[in-house]
Design brief:
Elements: H1 21-25, H2 28-33, E1 60-63, H3 69-76, E2 82-85, H4 89-96, H5 107-112, E3 116-119, E4 130-133, H6 148-158, E5 166-169, H7 177-190, E6 193-194, E7 213-218, E8 237-239, H8 244-255, E9 262-264, H9 268-299, H10 303-310, H11 332-342, H12 349-358, H13 360-374, E10 383-387, H14 403-411, E11 416-420, H15 426-433, E12 447-452, H16 457-468, E13 471-479, E14 491-492
Parallel strand pairs: 1-2, 1-4, 2-3, 4-5, 5-7, 6-7, 8-9, 10-11, 10-12, 12-13, 13-14
Helix pairs in contact: 6-7, 9-11, 9-12, 13-14
Length: 493
């Protein structure tokens, strides 16, 4: 339950711009000694008091029940009523059956969410006053932001939006997207007006507060799929809102479930920018490691040995080379560069990093082929096993996986490529990439080379000996993630 002490009574009467987040966050004693007296002649009246946004009995709607939305819904539903909405009826059915195909939420966690209901029925969301949008933000085939899921989710929310409601977005976007792209959709579908302390960039005027307004919050997701240590509740949360009072309400709302604390941003645009550069920074750091790996490969130097030696200095950052895929790190930089170009700046470093990371799959394929030739193994019509298709270890997500680049590059050499990944949904792999993955572990002694592309715990536990049983006696073993002992593999990135 949210509690603001003596300030709570002012939320019923003060206009949104008169409530500062600092006032809402003061100690009760300090507030009591400095009471605020609103001037009824200078402030507009607000028929919908903000107190309804702090009512613990009002259900929250979570729109999108994927890797981000489901953990969020589960945590909130341990304390208050939550309605989880998703357009995928199959997803609703599996969650109602107590199963999560993303493996991010255990059956025990689902059972603990006693106040959570699932639906694909829009009308079910009408009682909600707070809507949290957690849909993906991919790029298209030309690396341009694809806002289709975000726009459709905004249309969904707009159809049930009421005066005084709060819409919080968690999807990763470029700075300005929430107010410039989502707000017009919400306004069009709801017939309401967006209220902020200052007009969004490009707006011609600041609409005064009336009984026909809604509010906005932005708190970017920081979920790390497959990570059992850094979970939703243990990752610090950036929060923001369209007015100081709304920002404080958004921050207090997340404080209900986030044990690591929050970081209130000064504006929605600051919070948007913070999120998109988190992943851009990581993308660039890995790009540097990948470029070093390309250089060291030509020098005949083991990259990991170099990094371990350099890492003996206290301020050397511990990044490793690898395939950069998934729905975040390999995508988000394009959102930032898109906005940069739109405002007249042409980024160089960010796009250079993307180019390097996108070529690493082809490099792995070339390295394996070179090793095969050096070992006297014929390349044409050979058979290679790729272990792992997910974009990262211990995760079933195949979206934007760069393992597919290795497979495509190998097939250009007329190599027969099989892929085995016990974590993924094979039907999804077929739908996304037209790839028929093996349903069972392959037969022993079959392959001329094996590529450990994804370091699932299953593969790491098998070790080089267990993996080599699927290969012919003189086959090549290539370790993309450098998780096996160097002396037990033929090459690694």
């Amino acid at each position: 339950m949210l509690s603001f002490g003596p300030t709570q009574e002012y939320l019923h009467s003060l206009s949104a711009w008169e409530c500062s987040p600092n006032a809402l966050r003061r100690e009760p004693e300090a507030q009591a000694s400095e009471p605020r007296t609103p001037n009824p002649q200078t402030r507009p009246q607000m028929a919908q008091p903000l107190a309804h946004l702090t009512d613990p009995d009002t259900p929250i709607a979570i729109v999108g029940l994927g890797y981000v939305g489901l953990p969020l819904a589960v945590e909130f539903a341990k304390h208050r009523a939550v309605i989880g909405f998703d357009i995928n009826q199959g997803r609703i059915a599996e969650l109602e059956a107590g199963r999560d195909s993303t493996r991010e939420t255990s059956p025990e966690d689902l059972a603990a969410a006693r106040h959570l209901t699932y639906t694909d029925d829009l009308d079910t969301l009408r009682p909600c006053r707070i809507f949290i949008v957690t849909v993906p933000t991919p790029v298209d085939d030309y690396k341009r932001p694809d806002l289709t899921p975000l726009i459709k989710a905004s249309e969904t929310v707009g159809k049930v939006l009421k005066p005084g409601d709060l819409v919080i977005y968690e999807s990763t976007v470029y700075p300005g997207c929430t107010e410039e792209d989502c707000v017009p959709v919400l306004e069009r579908c709801s017939g309401l007006k967006y209220f902020a302390s200052a007009p969004p960039q490009g707006a011609t005027h600041h609409s005064p507060l009336t009984t026909h307004h809604f509010f906005l919050g932005y708190s970017p997701e920081r979920i790390n799929p497959g990570d059992r240590e850094h979970r939703l509740t243990t990752i610090k949360k950036v929060t923001s809102g369209s007015t100081p009072a709304i920002a404080a309400i958004v921050d207090a709302l997340y404080t209900e479930i986030i044990t690591a604390g929050t970081h209130p941003a000064s504006s929605i645009r600051v919070a948007e920018a913070a999120k998109v550069i988190e992943n851009t920074q990581r993308d660039l750091n890995i790009a540097l490691m990948n470029e070093l790996a390309l250089i060291f490969d030509k020098l005949g130097i083991d990259t990991l040995e170099v990094l371990e030696a350099a890492g003996s200095k206290w301020n050397f950052l511990p990044f490793r080379p690898g395939l950069v895929g998934g729905h975040c790190i390999g995508v988000d930089p394009y959102y930032l560069t898109h906005k940069a170009v739109a405002i007249g700046y042409h980024p160089e470093v960010i796009l250079a990093g993307r180019r390097i990371n996108d070529r690493m799959g082809a490099h792995v394929a070339e390295a394996v082929v070179k090793r095969m030739l050096q070992s006297g193994i014929g390349v044409c019509n050979s058979r290679i096993l790729v272990l792992g298709l997910a974009f990262k270890e211990n995760c079933p997500d195949v979206r934007n996986t760069r393992v597919i680049d290795i497979i495509h590059a190998l097939r250009e050499y007329n190599i027969a490529v099989d892929c085995y990944d016990p974590w993924i949904d094979r039907a999804e792999a077929k739908h996304e990439y037209g790839l028929d993955c093996l349903a069972e572990p392959p037969a022993d002694g079959t392959y001329d080379a094996v590529i450990l592309a994804v370091a699932h715990r299953d593969f790491v536990a098998a070790g080089a000996t267990g993996i080599r049983r699927w290969a012919k006696p003189k086959a090549i073993l290539y370790d993309v993630k450098s998780v096996l002992p160097a002396e037990q593999v033929d090459d690694r990135l």
